[in-house]
Structures are given as C-alpha cells and as structure tokens.
Amino acid sequence: MSVHSILDVATEVLLADPSASLGDVAKAAGVSRTTLHKRYATRHDLLVALAHDAYDRVDKAMTDAQLDVPGSDVVEALERAIAALIPLGPRIEFMYRQIGLDDVPDLVTRYEQSGEPLLRLIRRGQEAGKLRTDVPDWWILSTLDAAFYTAWEAISSGKLAPLDAPKLVMKTVMQGIGT
User: Fold this and answer.
1) Out of 4, 94, 120, 135, which residue is the most buried by the measure of CB atoms under 10 Å away?
2) What CATH number matches the domain at 54-177, 1.10.357.10, 2.40.50.1020, 3.90.70.10, 3.30.230.10?
C-alpha cells in the first residue's frame, strides 16, 4: 500500500475516532502494525505526516487553481480555488480538529502561510472592485475558511452533495463579500 493510501485511510480512521491507535490505522489500511511502525514510529509521527500531506495537497490545489495569473478574473479564480479545496475537506477538517501539533515549528509555519495565496487573491479582488473593501482582507479569508469547513462537515454528514458544495460556498461568500 502506498504512503498516500495509508495517509488517506489514517485520515478516515482518525476522523471517525480521534483516539484510534496505530494498530487501528494499520488494521484499516490492511497492513501490519510493524509495517506502519516502520514508516511512523509513533502516533505523533503519523499525525505530523498527515498534516504535511494535507498542506502539500492544499499547496498543489492552490497552484493548480492559478490564483496569481496576472489579468485573470478574480471571481473565476476564487471559483477555481473553492472547487479545488472542497475535495480536500477530510484532510483539512482533520487538521483543524487535531490537537497537539502546535509544538511542531514547521507545521506552525505552514499553517501561517497556507492562506497567503487566497489572501493575495482577495486583495487583488478588493483592488479590482470585485470584493468588498469595507471589511478587512483577513475577515474575508476567515469567512471563506468558515464556509469551507461548513461545507466539509455537511458533505461528511450527508447533507450536501460534494458536487453542489463549490457553488453553494461561492454563492454564500460572494453575497456576503461581493460588491
């Protein structure tokens, strides 16, 4: 089983049961505890690997969404970002819920930097008159984060179809921050 597959299964297991052991993760992944322990000596090591993988996926999604293309439409770029982030919900939801990674300096740095691409897009949208300027850029980013999280939880609980989520997030956010 590949590292990404193990991390995908670990995310599912730990979201369902935050106190799950490495043995529980190994069983769900269909690998031996020894195999899992060779890759992740401790539960904390697995959690750090999960967080880094989630940040890697967010970074790739933001790059693929081409948010910084000069002259591109801000609203379309925001739609691409939302569409790219919705499928990452379980990973990001896991990170938001995980306690105990605040002592890992490189994860703290990645957290602090993770919103930068969207923040730059928001600022560009404000400068172009596409997004409200009477609220701070950080507030718009926080509103987006809250909308993403709500969508991920609604998908997880079966209230919202994954394909409907990007449009709902965009509509909700733009009616709150759009001009």
Assistant:
1) 94
2) 1.10.357.10
